[in-house]
Write a structure and sequence with these properties.
Largest interface: A-B, 43 and 31 residues
Helix content of chain A: over 70%
Shape of chain B: rod-shaped
CATH superfamily of the largest domain in chain A: RNA polymerase sigma factor, region 2, helix turn helix motif
CATH class of the largest domain in chain A: Mainly Alpha
Order of helices and strands of chain A: HHHHHHHH
Oligomer: heterodimer
Distance between the termini of chain B: 158 Å
Shape of chain A: globular
Largest sheet of chain A: none
Distance between the termini of chain A: 32 Å
Number of helices of chain A: 8
Number of strands of chain A: 0
Chain lengths: ~180, ~170
């Protein structure tokens, strides 16, 4: 997640919507990516992102800088995404459109070599996404925060509200499963 | 430490850079002499960690921000919108314009003070002089009228003595 200045947070706390938009621009990539990897559903991830930012907006005035703003965003995001995934799983009529994640960027005209490279990347990405799907949501949240978002154990522990040994244990199980699913280990 | 324990550490603290310097050195020393653990470490990096770390951050579609902004603006509009009671009071105020008590009170005090000022102040004396002058002017006019015969008509009782004198 990009750095967010204290001044921007204070302006947003005072009701400045332009400042809140700067927070959104800095954090939305993190929030949406985590939501997408955990729920594995674009529509659900968009709703999670919307929910996360509305929660942040509503509780922003009570934020007193006693903890890191980033940590707070990590926690709200992880909680909201996990709850959304669990709710989605409970729903008997839930959609089965575990759609693959497609870049929202415009498609440019590629050369043959570029097309091959893109195809290879897409295949690898798709393989990884199906590997992630083989994990349970708690393991997936831990591995996404560690491997994709680069959080350390302390930050993961705060984001998921679990102790560091549980972080370690979830990462170990997730990696064992991923290694096995990728054809070895 | 046996290979099982070493591999557990490789899967967690070692690969994530959370191991202490001593522990890291111990693992590295083991990897130099154990081919099985070395292959395990290599497979973990190549097939799990590195591909995952290459997954890029995905930005949400622009519509997400528009929805968030819309919700916030809607909430703000509701927050500042007058309640039913406030709207009713406004309607009554516009229909039956009544001064607010504070303004009515201050107006009454102002009127009393102005009246007192004019009744006991220098303006009061000026009014007395004005009345006196008007009274005298009327008297002079009446005298003038008497010269023109009005007095005779007004005061005449048509007696013998009057006829003798005038």
């Amino acid at each position: 997640m990009e750095d967010i200045q204290r001044e921007t947070i204070e302006q947003a706390q005072a009701g400045d919507i332009a400042a809140f938009e700067r927070i959104y621009r800095a954090a939305s990539g993190f929030v949406y990516s985590v939501a997408l990897r955990i729920t594995n559903n674009r529509q659900e991830a968009q709703e999670v992102a919307q929910d996360v930012f509305l929660k942040i907006y509503h509780n922003l005035k009570g934020f007193q800088f006693r903890s890191s703003f980033k940590t707070w965003v990590y926690r709200v995001t992880a909680n909201t995404a996990l709850n959304a995934y669990k709710k989605m799983s409970r729903d008997l009529n839930r959609r089965q459109d575990f759609d693959s994640i497609i870049d929202t960027q415009a498609v440019s005209v590629d050369t043959k070599k570029e097309m091959e490279e893109r195809q290879e990347r897409d295949e690898q990405k798709s393989r990884l996404e199906s590997l992630l799907n083989s994990l349970n949501p708690d393991q997936r949240a831990a591995i996404v925060l560690r491997e994709i978002q680069g959080l350390n154990y302390e930050e993961i522990s705060q984001a998921l509200n679990i102790n560091i040994n549980t972080v370690r244990s979830r990462l170990k199980r997730a990696r064992q499963a991923l290694l096995a699913a990728s054809g070895g280990g | 430490m046996d290979c099982k324990k070493i591999q557990e550490i490789i899967m967690t603290d070692y690969i994530d850079g959370e191991a202490s310097k001593t522990l890291r050195e111990e693992i590295e020393a083991h990897l130099k002499i154990c081919e099985g653990c070395r292959k395990f470490e290599q497979a973990l990096r190549e097939r799990v960690s590195e591909p995952l770390r290459k997954l890029e951050q995905v930005k949400p579609p622009e519509g997400v921000w528009q929805k968030i902004k819309g919700s916030i603006e809607e909430e703000q509009a509701e927050q500042y919108a007058p309640s039913f009671l406030e709207r009713l009071l406004d309607f009554l105020r516009n229909s039956f314009p009544v001064r607010k008590p504070v303004f009515a009170f201050s107006t009454a005090i102002s009127v009393i003070l102005i009246a007192l000022f004019f009744s006991v102040g220098p303006f009061h004396k000026q009014q007395l002089v004005k009345d006196y002058i008007e009274e005298k002017a009327e008297f002079m006019v009446s005298l003038n009228r008497s010269v023109n015969g009005d007095l005779e008509r007004d005061l005449s009782f048509n007696t013998a003595i009057e006829r003798y004198l005038f």
